[in-house]
Amino acid sequence: MEVVLEKSTPTNATLTVKMDKSDYQPKVDKTIKDYSRKANLKGFRPGKVPPQVIQRMYGKSIVIDEVNNLLSDTVNNYIRDNKLAIVGDPKIDREKTETIDWNTQTDFEFSYELGLASDFEVAFESLPTVSKYTIQAGETELNEAIENLRERFSGQTNPEVSEVGDMLYGDLKQVEGEFNTKTAIPFARIKEEAQALFIGLKKEDTVTFDIRNTFTEDRAVALLTGLKDEEAAELTGDFTLTIEDITRKAPAEINQEFFDKVLGPEKANGEEEFKAQLLDIINDNYVRESNALLRRDIDEMLLNTIKIDLPEAFLKDWLLKVNEGKFTEEQIDAEFPQFLRSTKLGLIKNNISDQLEVKVESNELIGAAENMIREQFGFLGNDLDERMQEAINKMAMNYLMNKEEDNYSKVFNQVMDAKVFAGLKEKLSFEEKTIDVEQFKEIVNSLV
Question: What's the CA gap between 241 and 205, in Å, rounded?
């Protein structure tokens, strides 16, 4: 067998595979023998069908199968052994294959068009310095967090007179009709221009309103009536609500009970301790934000520093074919810059993972999937009982085995990317900068 690679440009090549009968015939003979032992044909005892009968009946299709299998293995092995940085899939020369006469030919020649990434090098010592930010939260962020937590742990009061933001409970009746139900109307569902009708109401007051012109969306009518969407859509005209109760959210008071709810019992004694610990938590959360910004800046540095050329015409043609019927040529053109960016970044990170000898183990994939399940269902911490841990493990395994969604590859790429990022942080030089939250927001907004 002869395999020849010819480059027409640094990013385009033709791979030619020539094979003669001696390359594929041993596999053909073996397959025919296997068929003869397993075939169940009329007139022959099971397992005793002569090979020449199998040859006469199935010889051509067996040759085609074995030649194609050998061809696929040869192309894949050549690409792997020669470490060709291919992009897209090898594209076979259909015109040449359509001229093959499988009845008479014994020697074959196949040609593939390959798209290649140009040669590039990732030299860690030559990469530029990257800014690494420490985000320092202050009084503004602390006070905002406290107010949000007061809302989150809020209680309820029952005021005598309604205001914006209240929840109104009462008897809902159709003025000219038979519909009647008990319901609750939140101010958030009422259009701003209609809210004045519902302000200043007391128990036993009655308010009249047009049910179709009062609420922010048609879905709200279904929710407050308890009807199906199509049934609620038929309700029109004036309705009355007779107030039976009014409830209002009351922000939690800043006291020891509040501190215990937020941090846990006896974690902080007094407001000063509470604020100090809460500020630490806020700053820990901004570490994630800082890491996300650092990852983005490293990606941009790599893309701007390492030049890679790609066969753009080849890739557009490949994308159009593999997404046939899903995307138009115009849609592919619109998304192509982002595709190029992602492809180049993937090639760079693959090179880095090879240099750093990054490996992803199966237990790391399972662990990542389990963590995702924990976060999704709110199972935080490591104090889960054995049965719950087994359930999480089972859900993680089922998730990874979902081939339709290709979840295994998604998790693999996430774990690989995280390990490459961790390895890169050990190799790169950084300029440490401490900024406040407003400066951080300005940096993020400038990147949009």
Answer: 8
Query: What residues are paired with 433 via a beta bridge?
Result: 133
H or E segment to which residue 314 belongs: helix 312-322
Instruction: Give helix then strand counts, H and E, for the chain.
Output: 14, 11
Q: What are phi and psi of 401, to 5 degrees?
A: -85, 0
Q: Is 357 left (phi over 0), alpha (psi -120 to 50) or beta?
A: left
Helix (H, G, I), strand (E, B) or coil at 105: coil
> Do 133 and 223 have their domain in common?
no
- The answer to whether residue 147 is domain-embedded is no
* 317 and 215 co-located in one domain: no
Helix 437-447 to helix 271-305 angle, to the nearest 10 degrees? Answer: 30
What the block records as the tokens of 231 is 């049934």
Residue with tokens 């993972």: 353
pLDDT tens-place string over residues 13-33: 999 999 999 999 999 999 988
Contact 149, 252 (CB under 8 A): yes
Q: How many angstroms separate the Cα of 368 from the Cα of each of 115, 356, 402, 408, 436?
A: 34, 21, 15, 11, 32
The secondary structure of residue 160, as a DSSP letter, is S
Q: The domain that contains 67 carries what CATH number?
A: 3.30.70.1050
Judge if 19 and 86 occupy the same domain. Answer: yes
Partners of 436 in beta bridges: 136
Same domain? For 302 and 333 the reply is: yes
Q: To the nearest whole number, what is the mean pLDDT of the chain?
A: 91
Instruction: Name residues whose C-beta falls within 8 Å of residue 100's C-beta, 6 or more positions apart in sequence.
Output: 108
Strand order from edge to edge, sheet including 91-92 = 2-9, 12-19, 108-115, 91-92
- Phi and psi angles of residue 64, each rounded to the nearest 5 degrees, phi first: -60, -45
Q: Which residues contact 35 (CB under 8 A, 6 or more apart)?
A: 49, 54, 58, 62
Beta-strand (E) ranges in 190-334? 206-210, 238-250
First and final CA of the chain: distance in angstroms? 54
Q: Residue 41 contacts by C-beta under 8 Å, 6 or more apart in sequence?
A: 49, 53
| Cα–Cα distance, 237 to 228 (Å, whole number) | 18
User: Are residues 187 and 76 part of one domain?
Assistant: no
Q: How many whole angstroms separate alpha carbon 77 and alpha carbon 377?
A: 44
Give residue 383's pLDDT: 58
pLDDT single digits (tens) 92-120: 999 989 999 998 999 999 999 999 999 99
> Which structural domain range is residue 165 located in?
155-250
Structure confidence by residue, pLDDT tens digits, 395-430? 999 999 988 888 999 999 999 999 999 999 999 999
Query: Contact at 8 Å (CB) between 209 and 183?
Result: no
Q: Could you tell me whether strands 430-436 and 130-136 are parallel, antiparallel, or unpaired per DSSP bridges? A: parallel
